[in-house]
From TrEMBL:
It comes from Bradyrhizobium erythrophlei. This is aldehyde dehydrogenase (NAD(+)). Transmembrane segments: none annotated. Residues 14-469 form the Aldehyde dehydrogenase domain. InterPro entries: Ald_DH/histidinol_DH (IPR016161), Ald_DH_C (IPR016163), Ald_DH_CS_CYS (IPR016160), Ald_DH_CS_GLU (IPR029510), Ald_DH_N (IPR016162), Aldehyde_DH_dom (IPR015590).
């Protein structure tokens, strides 16, 4: 593949970019150039916003039935390109085939999940001479991250469409090929012109214009804390509504009654999820101090299942990092862990043996980590796990909550009632028990620095709605 992308999707058509800056598209598995993309600028963004504003004049008055029909067409159109979307994620991002397929399917199915959730939301309620309606917020700017491109775009789009909003999407420039395949698919859904607009460009240009433009009523962003803070500050100037999903440093609490033969593989799956490039990755494993030696042996024994290799190989568990920059970031954290005195149980610096190209990282496990170490405080976004010992259940809960993040958490143990009791004390937006389970209707979002607001299901749709009351004399 050697693809050059020069268009954006505005007002129902693929139009040539006004911006002229070109960006190379590099394949993570071998650092080879596979294409180029022309980045949009402020003018491209303003054209897309204008198209969305025009479309909202009509679509903002749509009925549930109208929105349901569009969600079904979006699902049908995206489903037809499922294999292409998966292949693009493997090629451009380096997502391993077994996980990329799940991510893409989750994105495609987000349209059906939104349709189901929409039926559960009463858009109008009346009593006496009062009527309360839930109204679409308006034009929504959707800014998405590079680690699950199809999922983020489809999820946010589905919620906005279900609410009656029109959208301008700024996907990550690192996902340009994936975005092109997805938008080509969604174009076949025969949407009203201007309902969906997509401009690929930098956050400092396209993203910034979305945030400051007074014709954009809502921003939904997935990405880093620093960018989220900037969006929140700048959006205040035009009183934009914001939803921010900003990552995590998720704890997994291993209780002393856990079956290590099951719990340790489950903990490693959560730690190395999406090659560690996942905001929900369980990158802190809290274990009873009395079982630390047994846990170390169990981890060493289970690591063989997490093979590093070509992401297209269905047996590969961990693929490359998305870019040279991300590779270097992960390497710097591994060095920092060693410098701060953590014990290296597996992995370490450099590429795995036999890899002399690509952005591959050794899956790395540190033990004897203190919760105040850098590797236990900061989001690494790579396959690096910190094992932290605790003495009591209360201490485990305290360590788990001692983080500026609060997106995701997990509890592993055989006594379900006890696991539920521990889970209920964790300051995280979502807590799973004994596996990385999912529910497309359950809210997704975080406490503290992990963000503002929720996505998925009715919670995600409600984030794009405003409440209006009409009272008669």
């Amino acid at each position: 593949m050697n693809k050059t992308i020069t268009t954006h999707y505005i007002d129902g058509a693929f139009v040539e970019s006004h911006g002229h800056e070109m960006l190379d598209i590099i394949r993570p598995k071998d650092s080879q150039l596979i294409g180029r993309v022309m980045l949009g600028d402020e003018e491209d963004t303003r054209r897309a916003i204008a198209a969305a504003k025009r479309a909202f004049a009509t679509y903002g008055r749509s009925t549930k039935e109208d929105r349901t029909e569009i969600l079904r067409r979006l699902h049908e159109a995206a489903s037809a390109r499922l294999d292409d979307l998966t292949g693009a994620m493997v090629e451009e991002y380096g997502g391993v085939a077994q996980f990329a397929r799940l991510i893409v399917e989750s994105g495609v199915n987000a349209f059906l999940a939104a349709e189901q959730a929409l039926q559960q939301i009463p858009l109008s309620r009346s009593w006496n001479k009062t009527t309360v309606t839930l109204e679409p917020v308006g034009v929504a700017g959707l800014i998405t991250a590079w680690n699950a491109n199809a999922l983020f775009i489809c999820l946010k789009l589905a919620s906005a469409v279900a609410a009656g909003c029109t959208v301008v999407i700024k996907p990550s420039e690192l996902s340009s090929v994936q975005t092109q395949v997805l938008v080509e698919a969604l174009h076949e859904a025969r949407l009203p012109k201007g309902l969906l607009n997509v401009v690929t460009g930098l956050g400092t240009t396209v993203g910034a214009e979305l945030v400051r433009n007074p014709d954009v009523d809502k921003i939904s962003f997935t990405g880093s804390v620093a960018v989220g803070q900037s969006i929140m500050r700048d959006a205040a100037a035009t009183m934009k509504r914001v939803t921010l999903e900003l990552g995590g440093k998720s704890p997994t609490i291993l209780l002393d009654d856990a079956d290590l033969d099951k719990a340790i593989p489950a903990a490693l799956v959560m730690a190395f999820l999406n090659s560690g490039q996942a905001c929900a990755a369980g990158s802190r494993l809290l274990v009873p101090r009395t079982q630390l030696d047994a846990v170390k042996r169990a981890i060493a024994s289970a690591m063989h299942a997490f093979s590093v290799g070509d992401p297209a190989d269905p047996t590969t568990a961990i693929g490359p990092m998305v870019s040279q920059k991300q590779y270097e970031r992960v390497q710097s954290y591994i060095r920092k862990g060693i410098e701060e005195g953590a014990e290296l149980l597996a992995g370490g610096e450099g590429r795995p043996r036999s890899f002399d190209a690509g952005y591959f990282v050794k899956p790395t496990v540190f033990v004897n980590v203190k919760n105040d170490m850098t590797i236990a405080r900061e989001e690494i976004f790579g396959p690096v796990l910190s094992v932290i010992a605790y003495d009591t259940e209360d201490e485990a809960i305290s360590i788990a909550n001692d983080s500026r993040y609060g997106l995701h958490a997990a509890v592993l143990g055989t006594d379900i009632q006890r696991a539920r009791r521990v889970a209920a004390q964790l300051r995280a937006g979502r807590v799973v028990i004994n596996s990385m389970t999912d529910d497309p209707q359950a809210p997704w979002g975080g406490f503290k620095y992990s963000g503002v607001g929720r996505e998925y299901g009715r919670y995600g749709i409600e984030a794009f709605l405003e409440t209006r009351a009409i009272l008669e004399a």
